[in-house]
User: Fold this.
Amino acid sequence: MRSVLVLLMLSAAWLAMPGFALPSAEAQPVAAKPRVFAPGVLEVIPPDLNPEETTSVHDIIELRANRQLNWQPKLIAPSRRLYSKAEGVRFRREIHQLEFAFKPFRMIYVDLPSPQGVMERRLVWYMVYRVVNRGSAIAPVEQDGGMYVTQETAGKPVKFSPHFVLEGQDVDAAGEKLYRAYLDRVIPAAVEPIRRRETPGRKLLTSVQMAEQTIPVSTGENEQPIWGVATWVDIDPEMDFFSVFVRGLTNAYRWEDPPGAYQAGQPPGTGRRFVRKTLQLNFWRPGDGLLAHESEVRFGPAPGKEALYGVDEGVAYRWLYR
Assistant:
């Protein structure tokens, strides 16, 4: 009897090992009651709405590049010309943003097909996350006299088209950055093992499935979170410092028309450059490249290495345009 108990205990310990995945990736029925996470398991990034993001000032280069519009009027003021009105135009828009939360960075072994069609045991890096639409939105509202003020607006359902990039921050002996960037890959065979391990009782979506959803507004006790997972393979095992860049949580963006990029007669928008508000999450792993293990991954910049991430000491995440 004692030997049977020991065997059961060893089996349970083996099944609980980090990175273990059941052989079958077939979907399992979702449990009736989702797992309740202990405080601190989820790292929550609250919305960050800036009134300055609702307004931008640009020349309408498609008009300013047309010199025929730069004529000299005799009976009206030059400022009333279309050419003049196309200078320094204010563009106003409503900005919304989702709440983003994620579980600790993890790894799991999954059987995946190789290019030759042979099943291989592969190490998958992944991040399980949650998005909630708190109705966070602001917009410029015109007041009497033509002045504008930024006000909160009624929240509405929005789309989230996730774009995850895992980017290495390591440098070589000469101090030059070792460019390593990995786009989130949809790995259907990994989703169910990850769901069983991380979010039993909840549906877990890939980035493609997430983009198909409309995120409803959560109000009061009627919270409607949507859960997803970002997955990566073939990560360089020598990488010690890295960031995950998350785009799509907000519709805030900036744009510019570089001098000379647009020439008269070209299609509108030619040469225009857009950058979008992006969440940067910083991580580091003090292990080696021989045996990658999820327990090595720490959230936040490595002490003394903040310059690699472009942040100050202790800044685990930040919002930037890229």
Observations:
- The chain has a mean pLDDT of 88.
- Residues 2-15 form the longest helix (14 residues).
- The radius of gyration is 25 Å.
